[in-house]
Amino acid sequence: MKAMNAATPFSPVVLVLLPVALLLGVALSVLNPLYSFVIAAAIGLGICLMLRLDAFIAALIVAVHIVIDAFMGFATYQLAMLLTVTLLLVCYLGRSKERPWTAPNLYWLWIPFLIWPIMAVLEGGKFSLTNSIGYYLPIVFSGFLMFWLGNNLSKDTSSIRRIFQCLAMIGAILAMHTVIEATTGVFLLKSLGKASAAEAVFILDTGNSRLGSFFLNPNGNGMFLATFLFIPLGLFMETRNGWSKVIHMGQMLIILLALVETYSTGSWLGTLAGLVIFILFLGRARDSILLTVMLLILGTIGAVVLQAQIAAQLAHSSDTSSSSLHMATWQTATRVMLAYPWFGVGLGNQAYLHLAEPLRVYGQTKPLQEPDNSYLQWGATCGIPMVVIFLSLLGSVFLSAGRNWLAVNPQERVFFAIGIASLIALSVCSLFVDGWTSPIDMPFPGWLIAGIIATPFIRRYRQHRLAVASEGNDAEQNLVAKHNEAESTL
Predict the structure, then answer these.
(1) What would the pLDDT profile of 166-192 be if each residue is shown by its tens digit?
(2) Could you read off the pLDDT of 123-138 as tens digits, one per residue?
(3) Domain locations along the chain
(4) Where are the beta strands (DSSP E) in 115-197?
């Protein structure tokens, strides 16, 4: 009973406030139906917090950031960040032996990651302070919060499985939005999007539409799908339940079909890189061989069924004008980075748009707000030291994940293979788009996954388990010694 009370510290308060909120929602709905929707959402969130559905709320935060903050244009209010702070607060106040709490792992790298861009915020604020802060909060501060949240929600592999199951559900739902648009031509909830949603149309020379879904950009959509593909794939390989395998296979196929409709070359390169890493880190050679055979069969079927889409993708990938523009934007970003080596031109797209223009190379035919490369964007907007800090932090995440991978049983290593492969896919995609540095795309789910696989609880649990086993062996040896002594006495 004590553990339950510690885990749900707000239960009495929530039980009192829920009826009051319900009556208030009914009263306000007479004035505006939107109020009733907000109240209903608040009530639902309160119930989830009361029941400590932490994994579901974490996945919900990702969806809120993409759909509400970015697509619907409520980024000013940073609702996803506020939800993250709320869930962290609940986790802290409800900490117990069953729900442990930890400080953020790799804090010695997070401190400079949080502090160094402050000067870039001030520099970017000379052009637009709201724009500069609007970049710092989602890609820096919220990234830290999501990483910390991932650390605290991943106390063991069962918790990690639960989080990935919720993320797979969110990924499949967002992918279904793309599939529905591809099959029916209808963009669901388009009227709720910000003004730029109506202008988000991308057509290939072959006539195929590149679908951006809630991201309003096919490259951002493809990057999300490439990152999330490995979650249901890993859950499919891990589970032994037949129905669960069917569900995860369905989620994986939906995400794959949606990825095809983005025609994003960078996303496919990220997918292939992540797939190689996933097979290598799967944990058991038998599973790696079975997965390779399964993928070959699936690829053969896809090549027959999706011939037109594959032909369009190959034609788009061989377009030299796109690759030439990418190379030119990277050259411009390199010039900017060398011209402003310490703190960059300032955080945000407005500072880069204005200060990069005098340094633009001839091949970049138009001014751009960012250089289509997250690593160069860190350097151009926040300085070369920020690139070093970010790469050190990302490398340390992979190192911590590798240690956790070694610490668990071979059948549990698939969970860390999921996270490592997802982050590899995201990092490869970030070579061609602003993945890690986009305020509307991947920092929230990316850093959440990083926090999950870099959690310090796994190694602590293993050390505790070894200590208990050692104590058990010592006790058994003492019993044997006493028994032998008694027999010798007799």
Answers:
(1) 999 999 999 999 999 999 988 888 888
(2) 999 999 999 999 999 9
(3) 99-455, 457-490
(4) none
